[in-house]
Amino acid sequence: MLREVAVENYTHIPQALAAGADRIELNDNLAVGGTTVSKGVMAESAKYVHEHGRSLVTMIRPRGGNFVYNDTELKMMEADLFEAQALGVDGVTFGALTTDGLIDEDAMTSLIAASAGMSVVFHMAFDAIPEDEQPAAIDWLAAHHVDRILTHGGPLTTPIETTLPHLQMLIAHAADQITILPGGGITSQNAAAIADKLGVKELHGTKLIQF
Question: Structural domain boundaries of the chain?
Answer without folding.
Answer: 2-205
